[in-house]
């Protein structure tokens, strides 16, 4: 029903439908005048409207063969019903993981688990229903003229911004590139190490060649069914595996494959489409991958595409607070948040994982707008009071205030902390604000979240309104490397403490691998009920080729050269070869405790971008991508340190 058709129900007394019903029927009720009756009538009609929507959804379950209907309708619904990333904010990940793939980010059910999938989809339907009712009520309380004015203002704002972007980025300025150190290395002197590194390169070839054979141009590969796989995280944008793999191909000296990928980017990578995308996922994978490829190769096409996509993402920041939306239609510029995210809040690990790439976009484009956007996020956060010094995972972009007090160093929170530290390092240690925010944050994390099990395993719990949930996610395992990487710049007397803390987290995550049948770790593991570092729920037992554990091994090896980290890394290589390798590539597993492999049939793009890259670096000499010259974004894409001798970004007046 049109909004204008319902508005008389909430209009002033005596007007429209509300006035007519109140005057005609109200006189027969004792003690109620016309005005009181109209209020009752409004409430009744709102209930009827709510019941009608509920009935529409409920009717699905009474139709013939409802299980097939649910499978076809609910499980293949529009992107609006899908959570973020297979990976990192997480929601199971670093924000990317609340969806079907990082969230870097919190999947609630194991891949392919029909019961869990049904429960998740029904929960999302209920949340969407409740949210729609709230929004409808708020909208209907406005006058029709106000609604029309809001729509016109939003359209005008988006149009002006898009015009400004097209004018401001038509010409890219010359870039003052400092000589890059360690982009190419020699062979390791030790023959055994050289052989292991060559094996990891062969794994990359197997993954790449099968992607090329069965899914070229698609986002990801289905290695068992041998076809293409696309997640709603990228909308209609294609080629995630190609862009994600560029820098791995380069450092492994797979020159022919790199040239193939570059040609595809030049001819086929297209952002001019009507597509709703995850801002977080597109930033870390596509923007990060393109920037990295540009710095390594110097090929201008990569800079051009990175800046073009960066411009497309700018309307996500059009919120009252400047905290960006999670989802953005890159054609219309209209954004929104995941409906499941605490009343439509933005997610810490998503809006907090834009800083590194956007600073480089300003440098590469000559326009400070990208840096301004992410620095404003810092301003908003610094003006907020932190409960116990902690950063909750949810922030309302309209009010600029925290939503529910849920704190995690895993999915939904993880890469925010990573980017504080790396912003300090990438600035050549001039970004003192980032340094302070990082060390203040990890001090609070150590006080309130880090605990030891009965048998001495150090883990990072989750904090929910002051109560701890003694669960640690695979995504959280990146923190061991983070603590170690920041140790040199820790407050006086704490350098060794943070290096040791990193080692303890690495040991705990290794135990989560070692206590499974396949020797690869589950999505999450618990420390309660007499259990330590073991997944106790079926929807936490899967492994989707995640990199966080070997990421920590890489940092610990580089910073300590303790041989156990190479030993543990090789154990992971052997497990991947034995249990995840199939003829068509590499697949994730549904249950790491089950003796018979059950494949999820997805070769994640981050397997090529992160997992194989970190393993390759562990068996390389330290002169390949030395840590004092390079920063890895949360997708392991390479960003050079912006040294003091590189000129500051100047506004492109033209």
TrEMBL record:
<dbReference type="GO" id="GO:0031410">
    <property type="term" value="C:cytoplasmic vesicle"/>
</dbReference>
<keyword id="KW-1133">Transmembrane helix</keyword>
<dbReference type="GO" id="GO:0036503">
    <property type="term" value="P:ERAD pathway"/>
</dbReference>
<feature type="transmembrane region" description="Helical">
    <location>
        <begin position="43"/>
        <end position="63"/>
    </location>
</feature>
<keyword id="KW-0472">Membrane</keyword>
<dbReference type="GO" id="GO:0005975">
    <property type="term" value="P:carbohydrate metabolic process"/>
</dbReference>
<dbReference type="InterPro" id="IPR050749">
    <property type="entry name" value="Glycosyl_Hydrolase_47"/>
</dbReference>
<dbReference type="GO" id="GO:0000139">
    <property type="term" value="C:Golgi membrane"/>
</dbReference>
<comment type="function">
    <text>Involved in the maturation of Asn-linked oligosaccharides. Progressively trim alpha-1,2-linked mannose residues from Man(9)GlcNAc(2) to produce Man(5)GlcNAc(2).</text>
</comment>
<protein>
    <recommendedName>
        <fullName>alpha-1,2-Mannosidase</fullName>
        <ecNumber>3.2.1.-</ecNumber>
    </recommendedName>
</protein>
<keyword id="KW-1015">Disulfide bond</keyword>
<comment type="similarity">
    <text>Belongs to the glycosyl hydrolase 47 family.</text>
</comment>
<dbReference type="GO" id="GO:0005829">
    <property type="term" value="C:cytosol"/>
</dbReference>
<feature type="compositionally biased region" description="Basic and acidic residues">
    <location>
        <begin position="85"/>
        <end position="108"/>
    </location>
</feature>
<keyword id="KW-0106">Calcium</keyword>
<dbReference type="InterPro" id="IPR012341">
    <property type="entry name" value="6hp_glycosidase-like_sf"/>
</dbReference>
<dbReference type="GO" id="GO:0070062">
    <property type="term" value="C:extracellular exosome"/>
</dbReference>
<feature type="binding site">
    <location>
        <position position="634"/>
    </location>
    <ligand>
        <name>Ca(2+)</name>
    </ligand>
</feature>
<keyword id="KW-0479">Metal-binding</keyword>
<dbReference type="InterPro" id="IPR001382">
    <property type="entry name" value="Glyco_hydro_47"/>
</dbReference>
<dbReference type="GO" id="GO:0005793">
    <property type="term" value="C:endoplasmic reticulum-Golgi intermediate compartment"/>
</dbReference>
<comment type="pathway">
    <text>Protein modification; protein glycosylation.</text>
</comment>
<keyword id="KW-0378">Hydrolase</keyword>
<dbReference type="GO" id="GO:0045047">
    <property type="term" value="P:protein targeting to ER"/>
</dbReference>
<feature type="active site" description="Proton donor">
    <location>
        <position position="523"/>
    </location>
</feature>
<feature type="disulfide bond">
    <location>
        <begin position="477"/>
        <end position="509"/>
    </location>
</feature>
<feature type="active site">
    <location>
        <position position="548"/>
    </location>
</feature>
<dbReference type="GO" id="GO:0005783">
    <property type="term" value="C:endoplasmic reticulum"/>
</dbReference>
<dbReference type="Pfam" id="PF01532">
    <property type="entry name" value="Glyco_hydro_47"/>
</dbReference>
<dbReference type="GO" id="GO:0004571">
    <property type="term" value="F:mannosyl-oligosaccharide 1,2-alpha-mannosidase activity"/>
</dbReference>
<keyword id="KW-0812">Transmembrane</keyword>
<feature type="active site">
    <location>
        <position position="414"/>
    </location>
</feature>
<keyword id="KW-0326">Glycosidase</keyword>
<feature type="region of interest" description="Disordered">
    <location>
        <begin position="81"/>
        <end position="116"/>
    </location>
</feature>
<keyword id="KW-0735">Signal-anchor</keyword>
<dbReference type="GO" id="GO:0005509">
    <property type="term" value="F:calcium ion binding"/>
</dbReference>
<dbReference type="InterPro" id="IPR036026">
    <property type="entry name" value="Seven-hairpin_glycosidases"/>
</dbReference>
<feature type="active site" description="Proton donor">
    <location>
        <position position="281"/>
    </location>
</feature>
């Amino acid at each position: 029903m049109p909004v204008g058709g319902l508005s008389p129900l909430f209009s002033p007394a005596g007007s429209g439908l509300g006035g007519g019903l109140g005057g005609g029927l109200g006189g027969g009720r004792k003690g109620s005048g016309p005005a009181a009756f109209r209020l009752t009538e409004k409430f009744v009609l709102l209930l009827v409207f709510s019941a009608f929507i509920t009935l529409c959804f409920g009717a699905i379950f009474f139709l013939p063969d409802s299980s097939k209907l649910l499978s076809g309708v609910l499980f293949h619904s529009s992107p609006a019903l899908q959570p973020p990333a297979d990976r990192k904010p997480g929601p199971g990940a670093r924000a990317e993981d609340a969806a079907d793939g990082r969230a870097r980010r919190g999947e609630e059910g194991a891949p392919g688990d029909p019961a869990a999938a049904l429960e998740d989809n029904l929960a999302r339907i209920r949340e969407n229903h409740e949210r729609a009712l709230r929004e409808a009520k708020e909208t209907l309380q406005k006058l029709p003229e106000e609604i029309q004015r809001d729509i016109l203002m939003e359209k005008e704002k988006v149009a002006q911004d898009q015009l400004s972007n097209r004018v401001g980025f038509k010409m890219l300025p010359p870039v003052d590139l400092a000589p890059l150190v360690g982009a190419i290395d020699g062979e390791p002197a030790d023959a055994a190490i050289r052989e292991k590194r060559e094996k990891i390169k062969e794994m990359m070839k197997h993954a790449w060649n099968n992607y090329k054979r069965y899914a070229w141009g698609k986002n990801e590969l289905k290695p068992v069914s041998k076809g293409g796989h696309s997640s709603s995280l990228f909308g209609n944008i294609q080629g995630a595996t190609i862009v994600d793999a560029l820098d791995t191909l380069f450092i492994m000296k797979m020159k022919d494959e790199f040239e193939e990928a570059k040609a595809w980017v030049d001819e086929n990578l297209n952002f001019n489409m009507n597509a709703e995308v995850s801002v977080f996922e597109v930033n870390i994978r596509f923007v990060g991958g393109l920037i990295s490829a540009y710095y390594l190769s110097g090929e201008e096409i990569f800079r051009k595409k990175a800046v073009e996509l960066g411009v497309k993402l700018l309307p996500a920041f059009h919120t009252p607070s400047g905290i960006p939306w999670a989802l953005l239609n890159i054609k219309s510029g209209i954004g929104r948040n995941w409906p499941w995210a605490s009343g439509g809040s933005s997610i810490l690990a998503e809006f907090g994982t834009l800083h590194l790439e956007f600073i480089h976009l300003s440098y590469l484009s000559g326009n400070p707008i990208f840096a301004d956007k992410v620095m404003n996020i810092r301003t908003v956060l610094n003006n907020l009071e932190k409960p116990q010094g902690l950063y909750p995972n949810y922030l309302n972009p309209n009010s600029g205030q925290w939503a529910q007090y849920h704190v995690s160093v895993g999915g939904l929170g993880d890469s925010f902390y990573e980017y504080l530290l790396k912003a300090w390092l990438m600035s050549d240690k001039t970004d003192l604000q980032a340094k302070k925010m990082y060390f203040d944050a990890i001090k609070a994390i150590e006080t309130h979240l880090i605990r030891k099990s009965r048998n001495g395993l150090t883990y990072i719990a989750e904090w929910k309104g002051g109560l701890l949930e003694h669960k640690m996610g695979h995504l959280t395992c990146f923190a061991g490397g983070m603590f170690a990487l920041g140790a040199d710049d820790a407050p006086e007397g704490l350098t060794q403490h943070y290096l040791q803390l990193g080692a303890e987290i690495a040991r705990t995550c290794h135990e989560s691998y070692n206590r499974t049948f396949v020797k690869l770790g589950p999505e999450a593991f618990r420390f309660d009920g007499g259990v330590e570092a073991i997944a106790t729920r079926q929807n936490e037992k899967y492994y989707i080729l995640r990199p966080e554990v070997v990421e920590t091994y890489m940092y610990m090896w580089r910073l300590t050269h303790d041989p156990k980290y190479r030993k543990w890394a090789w154990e992971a290589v052997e497990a991947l070869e034995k249990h995840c390798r199939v003829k068509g590539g590499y697949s994730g597993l549904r249950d790491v405790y089950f003796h018979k492999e059950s494949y999820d049939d997805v070769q994640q793009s981050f397997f090529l971008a992160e997992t194989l890259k970190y393993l390759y670096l562990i068996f390389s000499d330290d002169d390949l991508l030395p840590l004092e010259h390079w920063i890895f974004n949360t997708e392991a894409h390479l960003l050079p340190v912006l040294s003091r001798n590189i000129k500051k970004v100047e506004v492109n007046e033209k």
